[in-house]
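All the exercises in this workshop are built on plain-text protein records. A record pairs a protein's sequence with a compact description of its fold. Read left to right, the backbone structure tokens trace the chain's path through space. Once this layout is familiar, the rest of the handout is easier to follow. Here is such a record, shown just as it appears in the course material:
>
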Amino acid sequence: MKPFPNAIFLAALLASGVAAAADVVDERLAAYKARGAGGFSAAAGKALWNKSFPDPKGGEPQSCASCHTSNLSEPGKHVETGKVIEPMKPAVNPKRLTDAKRIEKWFLRNCKRILGRECTAQEKGDFLVFVRN
């Protein structure tokens, strides 16, 4: 039995998205190392992802997983707006982590929202290693 053409196309699309994400992530990790970070850890990224922080605006404590869920392969939902958030895992969402500018934009926005400050280069690198694994 021959595979369906759509299945072949989908597999090729996912593979190209994962490859693009890997290239962009590697470039970002090199940039963070140039800023003094290094020894990136998926375990540290996972711990940061799931850690709850006091809401800088005085609301309930939140974590990255509050909106994105702890399973990076599943879609999330914004806790305030209810908007669906596509999965973080590049193997599931081929658009994820393929644009360095978007990565930095969302780090800035989400780190300030959850941590109450910008993420360090080390935290960003740990997170990216966690997500791509």
Q: What stands out?
A: Residues 5-34 form the longest helix (30 residues). Helices lie at 5-34, 42-50, 64-68, 100-114, 121-132. The first strand starts at residue 76 and ends at 77. The chain has one domain: 5-132.
